[in-house]
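#onboarding

Welcome to the new folks! Below is a worked example of what a typical request in this channel looks like: someone posts a single protein sequence, and someone else replies with the predicted structure as tokens. Don't worry about understanding the tokens yet, we'll cover that in week two.

Example request:
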Amino acid sequence: MATGSEQVVFKNKTARWIEDRLPILGFGYQHLVAYPAPRNLNYFWNFGALAGIMLVLQIITGIVLVMQYTPHTEMAFDSIERIMRDVNYGWLLRYAHANGASMFFIVVYIHIFRGLYYGSYKAPRELLWMLGVVILLLMMATAFMGYVLPWGQMSFWGAQVITSLFSAFPLVGDPIVTWLWGGFAVDNPTLNRFFSLHYLLPFVIVGVVFLHLIALHTHGSNNPVGIDLTKKDKIPFHPYYTVKDLFGLAVFLLFFSYFVFFGPNILGHPDNYIQADPLVTPAHIVPEWYFLPFYAILRSTVYDSIFTPLIVFSYLGITEKLMGVLAMFGSIAVLLVLPWLDTSRVRSANYRPIYRWVFWLLVIDAVVLTWVGGEVPTETVVLIGQLATLYYFVHFLVIMPLLGRLERPRPLPDSLGRPVLSHGASAQPAE
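Example response:
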């Protein structure tokens, strides 16, 4: 194969014939093989490729599972049990799909926190970051609807709680809930439309991932140093990063295999092995673990304890329930405007001594919110949740705008090939 400056020329006649009529081979070669990647990417950059692999795995296992699943309230639970017992390797497909959702979120959350640490959302990659947040939202919607499909106790009551949240909106709330349910309660129409959307949304995610990749390849990958690179600082994606990604995939599959083969129900809830019963409420309704931080924010914004002053919003018609819903959606929406909230001119936290500590505080805060979301909301748990929720929003809305102006970053190198202090680089002035 030979390549010109703009056009790929294949030696194989068949490849040339196809390329002349449909230039998809050259497109794939330029973006998957010859793509110039920074030569200093560490293993945290593996998680983007792992997320893509998990998306493909979820689609394949989901398509096969659907061949045996029945989307009807009278048969959904039994069809899942049949998949587990009577379908060849059905247990493997179901455990791979159910635990694959958890693995997908683990990979994507690490991918997001890597972006936060190395400032991958900063110019000129704002749209790349925003498309990533859209993918996260689509993942959440897909996972929630998929969780309802087994029609177990926690599936049913989870659907009841989450869809009822929309009733908090004045005037339009109740019609929205009725529209979501397809009736006056969570029932067969709800299960049918959730099944339809759960099947459709992964293909929408694929489309947004494609846009995400186009945005990525327009300005190239960020890197741990966070500087704009010259041509000599880059290497071809293949074979250097294909080999590195394959190694990361092998390690990840070992981790994934443990859950599929030795602990398939560790990340699930035991109540989902009980068929849905609208007349019996579970003692403690909780979502899947990857929703717990947002669920904690939803429950913590009550007009009590440290949030007592927020009661003034009740005079504007914003109830506690509506405040919780707004805070929950706001916790994700704030990520969309993050490129403009962070005022620092330096991308990587490696050169931002104060932000590095603040970043790890955010990580701890996310862990605390996850714990709070899974606990019974006692007075102490609610107070801890309120403090964690408060810090979450203060981090993005107060600390990041101010820190970028007050922090004095360490000097940046001009290129990856030069040591930082050998050419007399000066400290970055604070704004």
